[in-house]
Design goal:
- The chain is built from ten helices and no strands.
- By secondary structure, it is mainly alpha-helical.
C-alpha cells in the first residue's frame, strides 16, 4: 500500500502553494521580510522565502551537490541576501513557467518530499506573521502522504504505532515535521518519545518550547 499522492496531484499542490504564499506575502508587504521565524530561529521571513525559491533554482540549474545539507540550504539564503522580499517573490513566480511542466516527472517520493518541505515552511512563515490558514490544503495532504509512506517503510515499532494515529491531519503534519513541542504533541494525542525516535532520522527534532500557530 502506498500513501503517496499521484504525481499530477503533487505537481498541482506545489503550484497552488507557490501562488498562495506569493499572494499572502505581497499583501503583507515588504516589511514582514525582517520578521524572525520562530520555527527556524536563525531565519527571517525573507530568508525562509529565499530557501523556498532556492530549491527550485538549484533543481533547474542542476546544483544538487550536498542537497538538503545546511551548506546547500545556506547558499540559497546567501544568494538572495541583497534582494528585496518582493523581488524574490517575483523570481519565484516567474520560475513557474519553467519548473511547472517538470513537476509531474520528478522522481517518487522526492516529489512529495519537495512539497513536504515547502508546505512546512509555508506554515512556519504563516506562524511568524500571524496569518494562519491553508491547513486543509492539497499541499498538507501531499505532506501527510509523504510522512505516512515514510512511516510505513520503517521497521521501528514507534513508526508503526504512529502510522495508526487518528489525530487531526494538520496536528499530525506539524508534529511529525519538528514543529511541535513535547507538550503540544502530547496535547494532540501523540507520544512525544515515539515522535522523536522517528523524526530524528529525518533529521528533525522536537523544539524545546511551544510555538503558537
Amino acid at each position: 500500500m502506498t500513501y503517496l499522492v499521484s504525481p499530477d496531484e503533487v505537481a498541482a499542490a506545489y503550484t497552488e502553494l507557490r501562488t498562495r504564499v506569493i499572494a499572502l506575502l505581497r499583501e503583507a508587504g515588504e516589511g514582514v521580510g525582517n520578521i524572525p521565524v520562530p520555527h527556524c530561529p536563525a531565519w527571517t521571513v525573507k530568508m525562509a522565502v529565499s530557501h523556498l525559491v532556492g530549491v527550485p533554482e538549484d533543481v533547474l540549474s542542476g546544483n544538487m551537490e550536498g542537497v538538503t545539507t545546511e551548506t546547500w540550504t545556506q547558499a540559497q539564503v546567501d544568494r538572495h541576501s541583497n534582494d528585496s522580499l518582493m523581488s524574490i517573490l517575483d523570481a519565484w513566480e516567474a520560475m513557474g513557467a519553467t519548473i511547472d511542466p517538470m513537476l509531474p516527472h520528478f522522481p517518487v517520493p522526492v516529489n512529495s518530499q519537495f512539497v513536504f518541505d515547502s508546505c512546512t515552511h509555508e506554515h512556519d512563515i504563516r506562524a511568524a506573521i500571524g496569518q494562519a490558514g491553508a491547513r486543509d490544503s492539497q499541499s498538507v495532504r501531499v505532506a501527510l502522504g509523504f510522512i505516512r509512506n515514510m512511516l510505513s517503510q520503517r521497521a521501528q515499532p514507534e513508526a508503526q504505532e504512529l502510522l495508526q494515529a487518528t489525530i487531526n491531519d494538520f496536528d499530525f503534519f506539524r508534529s511529525m515535521s519538528g514543529r511541535r513541542s513535547e507538550e503540544q504533541i502530547a496535547a494532540c494525542g501523540l507520544d512525544p518519545s515515539k515522535v522523536q525516535v522517528v523524526i530524528e532520522t529525518m533529521p528533525l527534532s522536537i523544539p524545546a518550547a511551544s510555538i503558537p500557530e
